[in-house]
Amino acid sequence: MKNFWKHSADIAARLTAAPRLLVTLDFDGTLAALAETPGQARLTPQFKAALKALAASPGVFVFVLSGRALSGVCPLVGLRNIYYGGNHGIEIKGPGFVWRDAGAAKARAGVAAATAEMRERFPAGTGVLVEDKVFSASVHYRNLKAPYRRGFFSRMKAIMSAPGRGLRWRRGHKVFELLPLGASHKGSAVNRLSSKLARPLVVAVGDDLTDEDMFEAVNGRGIAVRVGRKAGSNAGYYLSGQTEVLRLLRFISEARDWGKK
Asked: For the stretch 66-79, what's the b/e string if a residue is b when 16 or more beta carbons lie within 10 angstroms of its beta carbon?
């Protein structure tokens, strides 16, 4: 991986020259700092202003692509005229485009049943948060209490090894995620929206294992940027931390403004 800022001149030239640009951003850990619980995450006014300015730039499309449900991420960002992806790309909506993975939608009953089962296994007193996102579910263990640590991981191992009702498990940062087999992911979501928008140059920014799908889809024909350096990542560039994402958003806006002069 290359340090983004050490190659910023070459990247700026690509951003300036591109007729159209699709800036795809994860939410938690990228646009917003990681919080103790999903409900505590907030988009700061500075980030919101930077996103708004970027979306107003001619030829630029902004796509906030999150593991959260679409109904959860939209109000957290609160901007019109941008694209949103929820459940890692199972659902997408934005100007002139609404899409949902039909296969994943059929798995809702299985997700609901699995969520109810996990809530029985991991009640609130354990520090585990089971989140039902309709088309997927998350088991957050950032606040797992020490007395339950061994039991939690042994139970999760057993759950993940059991036959899965057309569902599969995947690990993220302090979270286990339950998803429909064969469901759309962040890589296919970026490709789908990119095709709709006549294939603009794509900039993809994220910080977690689930973002590797979009890095893989983008790299070689776009600009993939990981928040935090990680060996083996599909991203070509990295930022040192989440606070640098704000600088990145402003950098992209400035590059586009320069191209209009």
From this structure: bbbbbebbbebbee
pLDDT for the residue numbered 260: 61
Q: What is the CATH number of the domain that holds 170?
A: 3.30.70
Active site (annotated) includes residue 211: no
* Alpha carbon distances (Å) from 39 to 192, 203, 220: 29, 27, 36
Catalytic choice (10, 26, 28, 207): 26
For residues 112 and 173, membership in a common domain is answered with yes
pLDDT digits (tens, 9 = 90+) for 68-125: 999 999 999 999 999 999 999 999 999 999 999 999 999 999 999 999 999 999 998 9
Secondary structure of residue 228 in the 3-state scheme = coil
Question: Looking at residues 18-34, what average pLDDT do you find?
Answer: 97
How many structural domains does the chain have? Answer: 2
Q: Are strands 91-94 and 167-172 parallel, antiparallel or unpaired?
A: unpaired
pTM value > 0.70: yes
One domain, residues 94 and 10: yes
Angle between helices 8-17 and 244-260 (to 10 degrees): 50
Are residues 74 and 6 part of one domain? yes
